[in-house]
Design a protein that fits this description.
two-stranded antiparallel ribbon, D-Maltodextrin-Binding Protein, domain 2, 237 residues, alpha/beta, 7 strands, single chain, 8 helices, Arc Repressor Mutant, subunit A
Length: 237
């Protein structure tokens, strides 16, 4: 049994006229008649009552129509889905992002994707930079939004946003009232920083700020995301 036979049968079952069904299928009537007869022989039943004046479904034909209609509809939808996916209009995209991107970049990106590509489903995964690089290389992510990622063979990097480096201080600290702070002001202060393995590029940049001063930052605590860092600083760690 061929898919074409089922499509031909459905056309005749809906039109109840071989001539109209043939025109709808863009074929001549004799080949259509042959295909329907072969289908009936294969099934071992008559699907249509035929007279010189009308065509009607047998009880078996009506049941067969009801059974294959949803199958053909599902097949049409499956074909359309695949075409949409191939064209980039439908599908699922796995996105990793650092915690700080959840304030502006990720919400704006999700909004724009829903407006411009409503058939695309985004799976969002909060992850540190190092975890994202690993997940991208292992094909567990499609896109990563990270900070200061080290260049990695097999990955393409695009700058989305450039931000100023800022220091987060307890509100009670005298330095918090200054409009600007120099690295020299922070030499002796305890520092809460991300683990190197989670944000290697960012941590390296911090270390390089202190290197020309002949000092290393006094790191007293590591925290895996921005919220934890800010909470620890606010608590006076």
């Amino acid at each position: 049994m061929e898919l074409r036979q089922l499509e031909y049968f459905m056309a005749v079952a809906e039109e109840l006229h071989f001539g109209r069904a043939a025109a709808r299928l863009h074929i001549s009537q004799p080949p259509l008649t042959v295909h329907i007869k072969r289908l009936e022989e294969e099934l071992g039943v008559s699907l249509f009552h035929r007279t010189s004046r009308r065509v009607s479904l047998t009880s078996e034909g009506g049941r067969f129509r009801d059974l294959i209609r949803p199958i053909l509809q599902d097949l049409d939808e499956a074909v359309e889905d695949i075409r949409e996916i191939k064209a980039g209009r439908r599908g699922r995209v796995r996105v990793g992002f650092v915690s700080s991107a959840s304030y502006e970049l990720v919400p704006a990106g999700v909004r724009d994707v829903r407006l411009q590509h409503p058939g695309i489903q985004l799976d969002l995964h909060p992850m540190a930079t190092g975890e994202q690089v690993e997940a991208l290389l292992e094909n567990r992510l499609d896109i990563g939004i990270m900070r200061d990622a080290p260049l990695q063979a097999g990955l393409k990097f695009t700058t989305l946003l450039t931000e100023q480096m800022v220091a987060v201080l307890p509100a009670s600290d005298a330095l918090a009232t200054r409009p600007e702070i120099a690295p020299e002001d922070l030499i002796e202060m305890p520092l809460v920083l991300f683990p190197y393995q989670s944000m290697p590029g960012y941590v390296t940049n911090i270390m390089e700020i202190f290197h020309p001063l002949g000092h290393s930052p006094r790191i007293v605590q590591r925290a895996i995301n921005q919220e934890n860092v800010m909470g620890l600083v606010a608590a006076g760690v």
